[in-house]
Amino acid sequence: MRSIGVEEEYLLVDGQGVPTGVADAAVRAFERSGGEQDPTPGGGLEHELQEQQVETGTPPRVDLADVADEVRAGRRRASDAALAADARLVALATSPLPGPTTLTHGARYEAIAQAYALTVREQLTSGCHVHVAVADDDEGVAVLDRIGPWLPTLLALSANSPYWRGEDSGYASVRAQQWNRWPTAGPTAVYGSAAAYHEAVAGLVASGVALDAGMIYFDARLSQRYPTVELRVADVCLRADDAVLVAALCRGLVETAAREASDGVPPAVHRVEPLRAATWRAARSGLAGDLLVPPSMTPVPARDAVVALLDHVRPALVDAGDLTTVQDLLARLWERGTGADEQRGWARDGGLPAVVEQAVAATLA
């Protein structure tokens, strides 16, 4: 089976629930605790664009139960590091309460801030990136060419960012709206070959629109560091269970696409415009409205869209032994709603400060 690694970005908040720029202190606390060398589950802890964020990255695991252990352990260890820096860790894709952004130190971050201006100053968003192993770039691009139309449904399942600068944005994932301000973000068309993919990336870097290949922010891409396809469309999930669900579905999508390519099934020829529309639709309503699904990319109720995704990857889930777990996790998600749904419920009861308090607890639940 293909291994999975999960990267999650989190916010750091103070006692009032406002983002606080102490990532450097949190990472140093993690390193002092021996976190970099510690073989226990949970992976590492790294800086992100802003000092109000940190990121974990789990080691690659094959068994889904091990992936779940790594995600939960990573959250606990990151929370401990945040507490050591007088902050709290919270898995929210945007902050309900307005607060400052403080650029992380370093020449690369400074160059990014200079190049992208307001987009950087207002960029305080947290995503979930799932790495799924592939044999080589050829298989990876064959996968990318086939999974694009399904990625908006993953976004809808993970939607966890209804609030922006103290207001309800009207979106289930306003993070997706903010993230797509980057010039290299979003869905992509069919490449047809690894050479064509690398040519496209090189062209974006040569144009100066992307400062380097690390700034290729496609919804799914070949990883720069690992032999993986990296699916980047999801919000960071409020609950670890939902992160595991997204990871399992990502592996199912990659395995299904790789099998289709091996069997000579050509990718559907899709234009970027309907994929962008599908991504917007998923960000707007999450699981509360219609979603656009392949092959027609016409609207269907969200439950039907999720069923279609599950049916599409079912053989891969069965072969991995993941189907029952995925069905159980989906049932829990339908029962309580997405992170965006939960946040809005908490806000009705206690306002935005209550959202953060509840979310801090849910992050480690």
Automatic annotation (TrEMBL):
It catalyses: L-cysteine + L-glutamate + ATP = gamma-L-glutamyl-L-cysteine + ADP + phosphate + H(+). Keywords: ATP-binding, Ligase, Nucleotide-binding. It comes from Cellulomonas iranensis. The keyword Manganese does not apply. SUPFAM superfamilies: Glutamine synthetase/guanido kinase (SSF55931). Residues 32-60 are annotated as: Disordered. This is Putative glutamate--cysteine ligase 2. Its EC number is 6.3.2.2. ATP-dependent carboxylate-amine ligase which exhibits weak glutamate--cysteine ligase activity. One of its GO terms (molecular function) is ligase activity. The keyword ATP-binding applies. Belongs to the glutamate--cysteine ligase type 2 family. YbdK subfamily. InterPro entries: GCL_type2/YbdK_subfam, GCS2, Gln_synth/guanido_kin_cat_dom, YbdK. Gene3D superfamilies: 3.30.590.20.
